Amino acid sequence: MDYLSEIEGKQAHDPMFLEKMKESSSSSSSSCLCVPGPVIVGAGPSGLATAACLKEKGVPSVILERSNCIASLWQLKTYDRLRLHLPKQFCELPLMGFPTGFPTYPSKQQFVDYLEAYARKFDIKPRFNETVSQAEYDPTLGFWRVTSVGVKGKEMEYVCRWLVVATGENAEAMMPEMEGMGEFSGDIRHTSLYKSGEEFRGKRVLVVGCGNSGMEVCLDLCNHNARPSLVVRDTVHVLPQEMLGTSTFGLSMWLLRWFPLRLVDRFLLIVSWLMLGDTARFGLARPHLGPLQLKNLSGKTPVLDVGTLAKIKSGDIKVRPSIKSLKRHAVEFVNGTTENFDAIILATGYKSNVPSWLKEKVMFSEKDGYPRRPFPNGWKGEYGLYAVGFTKRGLLGTSMDAIRIAEDIQRCWKEEAKHRLAFTNSLLHQSSSL
């Protein structure tokens, strides 16, 4: 299918279209490229999976990536000891599994190697160092107009029939505001800038946030002979990574095939209590809702313990309440206590950045940058707009989205090809009868 021909056809028969294109080219110094298939924004696992599924169905695509590599979050913004929290069979992208020699929980580098091999296999070549500054549907054209900015400030405009948002749930680090942040003399950094506890050896470090990242950073600090404390601001479910000789996640998925969610939650909590004890005794009170029910309702993921809880029990990691304010060398907590620290690590998560560049208010919420419709219905919007990787269900949700999107675009691709063929045949018939 040749969308350049379609646009040329519109130019020839639609004066308004022609004026629109003239106005655009005269008011902007950007180059323009007409893309025959979808433009995918983001070259992480979500973008790669969608491009591979499309290619398998014969639909070309263009991926725009603001960084200089694929999976930039994994390559540039994760700590060294990171491993997949779920077994590899739940983290595979469509059409290609992990190498058989990989362990159950692949390391960060192994996962990056897998993604690079995935891109090579499907000949996926993103356009790197292109930051999408704006994407907007143009009703006059009937196409999406996507503007990107390169490293030297050069603008490029892509005109496409379909737009796939694959920037994901972790596009920007969330930095909380705390009283006295400017006064604190020590190092304050987000986990996206944390690599290893080696540089904090012997130091008193406060980790803010008790999700999987916060727990693992504390463990890493312990292993490098730092003295970490963990701020626990809310209730949290801590589950063993494995139960009864299998992964907790895999066991949960199997049990849900046979039993209702609340019964599975009760089972998980009983086994966790037997294996880990009463976590509330150590400052880790559990929510009233079960781990799976809470995940479904809020997207909050339970912590899968990889050894941190034992360090908390032994006293190597101290649990602290919420922060009231920061001072020059110390932190004051809401319970009135004050303690000295050399550094603060913010394990406060990430957020979507979609509202900053996508000029669309129907599919995506301006508040949090997520699709308004909950999983599994948030992957498709209007006018050829799609979302992949916003399911709060990790790589499993990403794969489900990518497969659905490729199938839907392929259907549109085939239908429009039929219409174009019928139109061409009609013209040929008319010319031959003259």
UniProtKB/TrEMBL annotation:
<dbReference type="GO" id="GO:0050661">
    <property type="term" value="F:NADP binding"/>
</dbReference>
<keyword id="KW-0560">Oxidoreductase</keyword>
<keyword id="KW-0073">Auxin biosynthesis</keyword>
<comment type="pathway">
    <text>Plant hormone metabolism; auxin biosynthesis.</text>
</comment>
<keyword id="KW-0503">Monooxygenase</keyword>
<keyword id="KW-0285">Flavoprotein</keyword>
<dbReference type="Pfam" id="PF00743">
    <property type="entry name" value="FMO-like"/>
</dbReference>
<dbReference type="GO" id="GO:0050660">
    <property type="term" value="F:flavin adenine dinucleotide binding"/>
</dbReference>
<dbReference type="InterPro" id="IPR036188">
    <property type="entry name" value="FAD/NAD-bd_sf"/>
</dbReference>
<keyword id="KW-0274">FAD</keyword>
<dbReference type="InterPro" id="IPR020946">
    <property type="entry name" value="Flavin_mOase-like"/>
</dbReference>
<keyword id="KW-0521">NADP</keyword>
<protein>
    <recommendedName>
        <fullName>Flavin-containing monooxygenase</fullName>
        <ecNumber>1.-.-.-</ecNumber>
    </recommendedName>
</protein>
<dbReference type="GO" id="GO:0009851">
    <property type="term" value="P:auxin biosynthetic process"/>
</dbReference>
<dbReference type="InterPro" id="IPR050982">
    <property type="entry name" value="Auxin_biosynth/cation_transpt"/>
</dbReference>
<dbReference type="GO" id="GO:0004499">
    <property type="term" value="F:N,N-dimethylaniline monooxygenase activity"/>
</dbReference>
<dbReference type="GO" id="GO:0103075">
    <property type="term" value="F:indole-3-pyruvate monooxygenase activity"/>
</dbReference>
<comment type="similarity">
    <text>Belongs to the FMO family.</text>
</comment>
